[in-house]
Prior knowledge:
The protein is of the alpha/beta class.
Amino acid sequence: MSPTPTQVLNAVKASGVSYSLVPGWDDPKIAASGHWAPAGVLEHHTAGRDSLHWVLHDQYYPIRACHFLVNRDGLVNVVYAYKCYHAGRGGPTKVGKVTVPLDSGNGYFYGIEIESLGTSLDNSGANGYTDAQIEAASRLTAALLDMLNVPTSAAINHKDYAPGRKSDTLMSKQWWWTHIQKYRHTVKPKPPVATQQYRQGKKVYSSKMHRGQMNSDSVWNLALALINKGYGKAIRLKY
């Protein structure tokens, strides 16, 4: 089952980016037909300026030309939540555990367009990609991958999907993975829980060890408390 518009919007919010909802972003009546089970993300650049009008009104209108458009200032336009046309001819390729069949990328990828002429890595002008765009695209991609529960390697460039036909983006997919990984959601493991029992009501006494005494209830209880705080790797109870 493909993610709902609500799930997509929740992922956008979780990413922490600034965003704008484009009217019709959640309208199922303008979805492209056919298979829609996203398994990854394609990174694009627009090769143009003022691209929002184009992604909404290209030759396939009313079907939209991407899912997200990242402005020069890093604002993310949420263009569409269902299947749209952005991948074109390409593949077959594999993302995570899913094989994307030949020329079927539209049914398997969310498409993120970065507004850039895409002719330079210099971020000082329209030819390149601004720092704000890189951060926004990385954050958004990470959140989408989290939503899909797929590895970071499920994010690739348009040129990786359609080699020889497309050149976007100028950065390598490995470069993107490094930036995306910084924003992946990771669940911290719960601290270990001691299986032994506290002694004398969990109290830690201010007492001294006596000559010949093998262990102390106070030390035992302190050790258990530290284990339950997550320091179990450094503590071993052997009494």
